[in-house]
Amino acid sequence: MKALYFTGDSIVDLVETDKPSPGKGEVVLQMKASGVCGSDLKNLRLSKAEKPAFADLKVPGHEPVGIVSELGEGVTNVSVGDRVMMHHYTGCLQCSMCLIGYTQMCMVHHEVYGSTAHGGHQEFMLVPAYTCIPMPDELDFAAAAACSCGTGTAFHAVKRIEPTGLDTVAIFGQGPVGLSATMFAAQMGARVIAVDISPYRLRLAEKLGADEVIDSSNVNVEEAIREITRGQGADSTLDATGIPEVRIQAVESAKYWGKVCFVGEGNTTTFDVSSQIIHKQLTILGSWTFSQAGLAEVAKFVVERNSPMDKLITHKYDLDGAQQAYEKFVSGETGKVILEI
């Protein structure tokens, strides 16, 4: 079978490898789609000198969806032919976090498929049966792949800020996660302000429901948001960039008694806690992915509310086009990018 590897210096290699066989409690998925995510890029960009031996590399891709093709011993929760999304973490299944479906927060040990275990950028994928989440019949494989990390992460971050039709929500960063947040916040009734430096992505944000867009490369973002909100600031802000300066903009742009949700990862950010947070009575939230039930929830919402996934997903490639897929994604001129298998 074919599988992808990041072999160093932004090179994506497609190689022939052995098809896996399921052990006890495992299933083999015939992969149908696997998403490209910004969190892949650190691994993609590592130099060849920084990479381990090829035998120790892991197949990337942490947004896997497919069809159950083989069952291991003792598997009863899925059947051959089932269409499933994979919640791409394992855990001990006994600690308090695992018991509520947050295996990525396992207090003993967890694996991350696409990082510490082989991910979805391959034709067949070996996974624990308990990680398989049934897909709604109406959901296509590409949309399901998006839901399986980036879009699902955005959905649950937006839920944390509890937007209503009375609220203005400013979303900083319009990559695939930020665009998904824009889409969901608009569908939940909020007035959405989308912030980015890419004209392409700001136009896409408008198509996904943004009421206002701000090109932060040429304006003072806080002043622009206060002008839109009659001097008040946004009821809630959400940062999907992880950039320290942008996180500060998100805090500064929130109104008194507002909410700020941090989703973008990495980097260190310094705040003046008294003037920027305490004296504004802000609620600061962090939101990291979702539980197993949360994956089913976002898929259900997308289907029932007819979320415009066809606008969010702008580019699709097969495995042979994976190098082109990543180069296009790195250019910033995309929405969500999906590998179809």
Structural class estimated from helices and strands: alpha/beta
Could you give me the name of the CATH homologous superfamily of the largest domain?
A: Medium-chain alcohol dehydrogenases, catalytic domain
Number of helices: 11
N-to-C span = 11 Å
Main sheet overview: 7 strands, mixed
State the helicity in percent bands: 25-40%
Listing every helix as H and every strand as E from the N terminus to the C terminus, the arrangement reads EEEHEEEEEEHHEHEHEHEHEHEHHEHE
**How many structural domains are formed by the residues?**
2
- Give the overall pLDDT as a whole number: 97
Radius of gyration: 20 Å
Secondary structure: number of strands? 17
The low-confidence parts are: none
CATH class of the largest domain: Alpha Beta
Q: What portion of residues belong to β-strands?
A: 25-35%
CATH topology of the largest domain: Quinone Oxidoreductase, Chain A, domain 1
> Overall 3D geometry?
globular
CATH level-two architecture of the largest domain: Alpha-Beta Complex
Secondary structure elements and pairings:
Elements: E1 2-8, E2 11-16, E3 26-36, H1 41-45, E4 64-71, E5 83-86, E6 89-90, E7 111-112, E8 124-128, E9 132-134, H2 141-147, H3 150-161, E10 168-172, H4 176-187, E11 191-196, H5 199-207, E12 212-215, H6 221-228, E13 234-239, H7 244-253, E14 254-262, H8 273-278, E15 283-286, H9 292-304, H10 309-312, E16 313-317, H11 322-330, E17 336-340
Parallel strand pairs: 10-11, 10-13, 11-12, 13-14, 14-15, 16-17
Antiparallel strand pairs: 1-2, 3-4, 3-8, 3-17, 4-5, 5-9, 6-7
